[in-house]
Structures are given as structure tokens and as C-alpha cells.
Amino acid sequence: MPNDTDDTSKQSVPPRSALHVMKGVEGGHEGLPGYATDRPGRPRGKRTLSTEEYVKGILDGDRTLLARAITLVESNAPAHQEQAQEVLQAVMPHTGHSIRVGITGVPGAGKSTLIETLGTSLTERGHKLAVMAVDPTSSLSGGSILGDKTRMEGLARDTRAFIRPSPSGGALGGVARKTRETMLLFEAAGYDVLFVETVGVGQNEITVRSMVDYFLLVLIAGAGDELQGIKKGVIELADTIVINKADGDNIRAARAARAEYEQALHYLRPPADGRACRVLTASAQTGDGIKDLWNDIEAFREEMSTSGAMQKRRREQSRQWLHSMLDERLRDLFYRQPAIRQSLPDIEKQVMEGRLPVTAAAWKLLETFQHGEDAAEET
Length: 379
Ligand code: GDP
Known about the structure:
This protein is of the alpha/beta class and 379 residues long. The protein is built from 14 helices and 7 strands. Bound molecules: guanosine-5'-diphosphate (GDP).
């Protein structure tokens, strides 16, 4: 499995320039417009690449350069983030040509087995497949998804597939940004099928839903209440539900579960811009139903593209992404500002003790922030 380990900084300070127009590369990045050769004694012997080198490497489909570009995108160091944006901007015209598939389900539902089976059949037919994960807990759990090397062994050796584990560390927002940008790099490198896997916890599904064209929920037939354990909201996000492990003695139960979900879905509104959710059965282990699943993905793409719903969905996703980036950056700038850090505890205390109305407190803090920004601008 290609796993580039560039020595990206662990620094988590966002670029101070978040609200400013990007200055370009001059002086901002080491070694541009050419590139720096190895500094003597540099441990890993990797030289800094120029933006042009990254771009050319990505467009040529060079796996090593692609991996390094992903590492650049995943870095929190301001200089890396700046260069990553230049790379992304340059490859932008070459993006958008893939089908973006999100895959969710509880651990054990068979997501990785399904990705392996479906993915292998796709690469055999000439597709280039990228598999990513969104798992903000991965830094705590040591990589619950995709980090485990025994998963997707076949795809990991497949030269037409590229597996990239979840970017680690940080909140979901940061992981989501990195994954979205990584998806663009994959597209520019000619990957025409993108899978983004996530475990069914908390906000993850909603986040992954907001970055893909087609959202697949992997379920298994269980004893008792079929709808148990799965939040109703998640079902509403799905474009298709697949009841996995429909093999052996489990076939009947899987078919029954399928009927139950179809029934349950009947009472849910179809998504405004999409197609009513479908329910399929499959076995990731035997491969039964996997072809039908791919047909469903292709039919979905065809239908949604023809109606314009796909383009609309992507445009709306970009707009929402812009706003969530702004929210995140503004909040960050606000709470990191020295003047705010200094006055916040006291204002909080006044609010808690009922000495200052909340609205007045918020206005006061925003005013402090504004002054702090003005002062920073003047210096
Ligand atoms: P994930 O946690 O959702 O990625 O699930 P895995 O793909 O790791 O699968 C969990 C377990 O279920 C493994 O032991 C798999 O071998 C098994 N499994 C996955 N798909 C199937 C299937 O279609 N049929 C059967 N019988 N077992 C399966």
C-alpha cells in the first residue's frame, strides 16, 4: 500500500492569512520557482518539490508524486497549505470526472470486504479506483478503518487502486477538508471511481454525504427489529441500501430485511434532488449481487446527470463547503486572537454571574475582536 510519509509539520496553526488574498508563492515557499535540493543532513533525503512538479506528477498519474501531494494537502503547516492550494488550483480543470461514492455502515457490516470485491471487479475492467476514509477518531483508536493492513489486501497490491487511510488528528471539519481536497487530486490523476468509507458514528455520515454523489448504506440482516441500531436519519441520507451477507443460511433473512426496509422507506420522503432510495441484497464474500450494485451506481449516475441533479448537488456541496470553511476559519481566528483570549474568561464570568447580558457580552467580544484585527492590520 503506498503510504507516503513526508515529514509534514505537526503544527496546527492555520495560516494567519485566512482572511487575506493568497499572496502567491514568492517567498512563501522554500525553493520556488525551482526547487531546493536536499539540505545536508536532512533525515529522509526528500527534496522540496515545486508546485509545477506536483502538478505534472499528478496529471501524469505518478503514484509517488500523488502520494506526496496528498501529504501536502494533509499537512497543517501554513507553508504546505499555501502550496497545496496552488497545486489544487492548477489541477482544478482536470477534476470532477469521477463518480464519488460514500460508503457507511456499522463496523462488521462488511464495508471493506465489499470495497475489495467491488473494487477488484472494477479495476479488472480498467477503472482506476481510489479508496479513502473519513474517521476522525482514527488518531485515538490507532486507525479503526483502513489503517488495518489486513483489510483490502488485494486492492492494496493492485496498481490500478490507491488506498489512502483517513487523515489523522483533528476535528471532523479538518479531516473532511483534507479528504475533499484529496478527492480532487485523485480525479486530476485520472481516478474515475472514488470510494469514501466511514464508520456509522455521529456526524461522520452527514459529512461524507456532503462530499459524494452517491451514498451507500451497508446493513446486515439481524435478529429482531431490523431498524434497530441504525438511526432513522442515516437511512434518509442513503441513495441505496445494501443488505450485505446475503449468502448461505442468511439469504432468507437478508431478503426479509430488504422487504422491511423497502416498507419503511415507503414512509420517508424521497430526497428533493434525488431518486428514491433503493434496497439491494448482496454478498461481498461470494460476489452475488455485486454486479447489480455497480449497475445501480451507474444507473444512478446516468439518471442524475441527465436530469442535472448531479451537477446541482455538486454545486450545492461546494457552496456549503465554502461556508463551513469560513465558519471554521472565522471561529479559529476569533478564539486564537490574543485580545479575545485575554478578555474572554472575565466576560464569561460576568455572564455566568448574571452581571452582563449575553447579547451585550457577545457584542463586546466582537468589538474587541474587530479592534484586535485593526491593530494587527496596522502593524
Ligand atoms: P467492516 O467493518 O464493515 O469493514 O466489515 P468487514 O468487511 O471487515 O467484515 C466483517 C466480517 O464480516 C469479516 O469477518 C468478513 O469476512 C465478514 N463478511 C463481510 N462480508 C460478508 C459477506 O458478504 N458474507 C459473509 N458471510 N461474511 C461477510
